[in-house]
From TrEMBL:
Keyword set, alphabetical order: Signal
UniProt signal peptide: 1-27
Pfam family, one: Porin_O_P
Gene3D superfamilies: Porin
Protein name per its UniProtKB record: Phosphate-selective porin O and P
InterPro entries xrefs: Porin_dom_sf, Porin_O/P
Coiled coil: none
Length: 555
């Protein structure tokens, strides 16, 4: 009996101990899961705190790096400008608007301030990695982890913290409105396209740039190209390398820089359009979206560029081209004298189509240009030259700045050599010679006057040191421009091989107002005089006037 009770007690105790062990195991398992969850939460908190500490360290380093007289002056300028206050003299001396004044300082500091107060370019980015980082340091930027969001050079940009990777998007928006007066046709002529009031989306470019260190790819569609709304095309699509000192190497569809006017961004033009002769010259083997391989180099006193070129974008699209064009451009410019108040510019541009495009009717070239306002599709200067062997053009550039006054001019001679497939027509074998020139004057009434841009080898737009704020007496910048332009497409008029493309003379005057660096309003008046040619709208010569305005936005 006792033995049986002992056995029962032993079995009961074992059962109770087993149940207790099981409960303890479940409790231990729950406790371990809770501990693991707490450990995981602590690890996440450590990671988050570590990331915050890293961000704070980066901010501290930047703050210490920026705690210099130049950085403090830059911040003081931004604060004063935001409140509409005048700048102290000590800070004002640290500002240079528009480019390089030639007044001391190293090239890096000049490049860092190169675009302050002037309109951004109408083209994709082409600066070096070092210049890009300097531009980011100069501008306010939002830092989000390892990314920066800012507006270097006035263009919205997203980049990595070190600027190694970046993407930017810009805008060049030019909307023209105006019309012609006194352009009625004479007896026997057709009217031509000369509306009394019309409008045109002259440029609607969206430059998009992708960067990896010193390698940049630019793609810029243009939704407002030319003189007629609705024509969409490509302005550029190219790859650039900017790793060499002050040098940019380019391959792809590009606008090769030739002539002083063509080297300027269209956001900086003195008048709404280039002089007729420079447009005629650049289109021989350059112009927008031209297949190009070459590069440019610049310094404070000189600028040089050369490109091998081919066809323009779309040239083979349904045009019957059986053999594409090849050519080249070259431009060199210098500043033999520069000071705070004076810049002297001299240069030489040359361009050649070694072989013009061949179509089913042979090798010919059409020279055509409008009356220096793109509100008409009618071109007074219009002549197709057949049996072309090659085309070349060359001429000098001269420019002079004295304080707020800028004077400049260019002259170009165009030569056309003939081929040997004339079928014995000796007259058609004669070479053809055209020419043209212009002289322009510009004066800045208020705002920072035009200065020299070493990256373009040309004169930059006026600078806006105080944005439009009439309550505080700030009105942006205002400039007056005037130009006399002649383009002559007549050659050998008294010979058997005469070519009569017409001569066009344009007297121009313009007023440009910049309320800030991103917007501009232009007003141009042109008086146009054209001699007769073989076109039905210009059988005995024409003269008349145009008045046009432009709304411009640039980012």
């Amino acid at each position: 009996m006792i033995r049986r009770s002992a056995v029962s007690l032993l079995l009961g105790s074992s059962a109770i101990w087993g149940l207790s062990s099981i409960n303890q195991a479940y409790a231990a398992s729950a406790s371990d899961a809770q501990i693991l969850a707490l450990q995981h939460e602590m690890q996440e908190m450590r990671r988050e705190m570590s990331g915050q500490i890293s961000v704070l360290r980066q901010r501290l380093v930047r703050a210490e790096a920026h705690n210099t007289p130049a950085a403090n002056a830059a911040q003081a300028r931004r604060v004063a400008a935001s409140k509409g206050q005048p700048l102290p003299d000590s800070y004002a001396q640290d500002i240079h608007i528009g480019g390089d004044s030639g007044m001391g300082g190293n090239l890096g500091s000049v490049m860092q301030k190169a675009d302050l107060g002037t309109p951004p370019s109408d083209r994709g980015v082409s600066s070096s990695w070092a210049s890009f980082r300097a531009a980011n340091e100069k501008e306010e930027a939002v830092h989000m982890g390892g990314m920066m969001i800012g507006f270097p050079g006035g263009r919205p940009t997203i980049s990595s913290e070190d600027g190694m990777y970046a993407m930017s998007i810009g805008l060049a928006f030019h909307e023209d409105i105006g019309g012609f007066m006194g352009m009625s046709p004479r007896r026997g002529e057709t009217r031509g396209d000369f509306s009394s009031l019309t409008e045109n989306a002259r440029r609607l470019r969206i430059p998009i740039s992708f960067r990896y260190k010193d390698w940049i790819a630019n793609i810029t569609p243009d939704f407002g190209n030319g003189s007629a709304d609705g024509s969409t095309t490509l302005y550029e699509a190219n790859v650039n390398y900017a790793g060499f000192h002050n040098t940019i190497l380019t391959a792809g569809y590009f606008q090769p820089r030739v002539t002083e006017e063509d080297s300027e961004s269209s956001n900086e033009f003195e008048m709404m359009e280039r002089p007729a002769i420079t447009d005629i010259v650049r289109n021989i083997a350059a112009g927008d979206a031209r297949m190009s391989i070459g590069g440019l180099h610049y310094d404070k006193r000189w600028w040089i560029a050369g490109y091998l070129t081919g066809q323009s974008y779309g040239a083979r699209n349904g045009t019957g081209v059986t053999d594409s064009q090849t050519g080249a451009t070259f431009r060199v410019a210098g500043r033999p004298y520069m000071s705070k108040d004076i810049d002297v510019h001299v240069g030489l541009s040359a361009i050649s189509a070694f072989k013009v495009a061949e179509k089913s009717n042979g090798r010919s070239y059409a020279f055509a240009e409008g009356p220096e306002v793109n509100l008409t599709t009618t071109k007074f200067l219009n002549q197709t030259v057949g049996n072309v062997g090659s085309i070349w053009s060359a001429g000098p550039e001269l420019g002079f700045r004295w304080k707020r006054l800028v004077l400049k001019g260019e002259y170009y001679h165009i030569g056309v050599t003939r081929g040997d497939n004339t079928g014995g027509n000796v007259g058609n074998q004669q070479s053809v010679n055209f020419s043209g020139y212009y002289g322009a004057a510009n004066y800045t009434l208020f705002g920072k006057g035009r200065s020299y841009n070493i990256k373009e080898g040309a004169f930059a737009a006026p600078g806006v040191d105080h944005v439009f704020d009439p309550l505080h007496g700030y009105w942006g910048a205002l400039e007056l421009s005037a130009r006399y332009s002649v383009a002559d497409l007549n050659s050998g008029l008294n010979t058997a091989g005469a070519v009569r493309g017409g001569q066009q003379t344009v007297w121009s005057a313009g007023l440009n107002w910049y309320p800030n660096r991103h917007f501009r309003f232009m007003l141009d008046f042109n008086h146009i005089i054209v001699s007769r040619n073989s076109q039905l709208y210009d059988l005995v010569g024409r003269d008349g006037n145009s008045v046009a305005g432009r709304i411009q936005a640039a980012f």
